[in-house]
Specification:
Length: 318
């Protein structure tokens, strides 16, 4: 565990001459302690109170569950407010699971999945729970796995990936279990092969493997492992996006305990997708000490995805 408080840093971007600069970061306390935990540190940017401003929802493995920071304007946030009924939730994903036009939250704890429907005023109501056997790590993704236009949930369990099929009203029923062995620390929807079916990539933090696994969707809620790529030690977060513009997603692994080079430097690992459900050779890039999470976006307006990484040891975003 690193540090004594969990901080969300906001940096206001100003693009100039094709380069991007940032104003000084402002920090807002959210929890009692931080550091790599049993999965990725989730931070979601979303409008929780329908005022048109982007708020923040974040998790803290060693605190009191997920927290909401409402946007107070001018890049500032109000005090962190816990989400009632989600004390043990350590992983989150967002999506409109009940069709009311507001983004809801899907949480994962040691007992299963809890559906937190948005009230539109910055609060969430625990609507339902689906029991799922535990994996050593916690993660969750929201994606339409069977092509019926309704969002489903995918989460690790003891035997692999459990799909929960959404009815479109905020309720879910157990779907297929896709076999996958490992410490499944994070999961993201992906487009691996361009076949129109939802795929996923998974960070596997098993000590002897340390990999990102690609699983192609079959269109009925199930997934089949199609490839994997080696990454650094402690891959607790994974990102999916088309980094090279070939129309297929690549993977970025946030390697919380991995160092490389001389002098030793903490790193992320990039795996280029081959368009067939596999990956090419890994490439490492330096980050601040102790990277725990990241995001993909076009930060400098050049039409290509960039990577931002939150590193707790150095209290920086790279």
């Amino acid at each position: 565990m690193r540090g004594s408080s969990l901080l969300v840093a906001t940096m206001l971007a100003a693009a100039s001459g094709g380069a991007i600069t940032f104003a000084a970061a402002e920090q807002f306390p959210t929890g009692s302690s931080i550091g790599p935990g049993p999965g990725a540190v989730t931070t979601i940017a979303m409008d929780v109170d329908t005022d048109g401003d982007i708020d923040v929802v974040t998790t803290d493995w060693f605190g009191n569950g997920p927290l909401v920071l409402r946007n107070a304007g001018a890049g500032a946030f109000g005090p962190a407010a816990p989400i009632a009924g989600a004390d043990d939730v350590g992983a989150l994903a967002a999506g409109d699971v009940n069709g009311d036009g507001r983004p809801d939250l899907v949480g994962r704890d040691g007992n299963g999945v809890v559906i937190l429907t948005a009230n539109g005023d910055g609060t969430f109501t625990p609507r339902s729970r689906v029991a799922v056997s535990a994996n050593a790590q916690q993660s969750v993704a929201v994606v339409d796995t069977n092509g019926d236009g309704k969002l489903d949930v995918v989460t690790p369990q003891s035997l692999g990936l459990q799909s929960l099929l959404g009815a479109g009203d905020g309720t879910f029923t157990a779907g297929p279990v896709s076999p996958l062995v490992g410490l499944l620390a994070d999961i993201k929807p992906a487009n691996l092969d361009g076949d129109g079916l939802a795929d996923v990539i998974v960070a596997d933090a098993t000590p002897l493997t340390q990999r990102v696994v690609a699983l192609r969707g079959t269109g009925d809620g199930a997934f089949i492992e199609s490839g994997s790529g080696p990454v650094g030690y402690g891959p607790e977060g994974v990102l999916a996006g088309d980094l090279d513009g070939d129309g297929h997603d690549d993977a970025v692994s946030v390697d919380s305990f991995s160092v490389f080079g001389s002098p030793p430097t903490f790193s992320i690992t990039v795996l280029r997708g081959d368009g067939r459900g596999g990956f090419g050779p890994p490439t490492k890039y330096a980050t601040g000490d102790g990277p725990v999470s990241g995001a993909l976006a076009d930060f400098n307006g050049d039409g290509r995805l960039d990577v931002a990484v939150s590193a707790v040891g150095a209290s920086v975003v790279t």
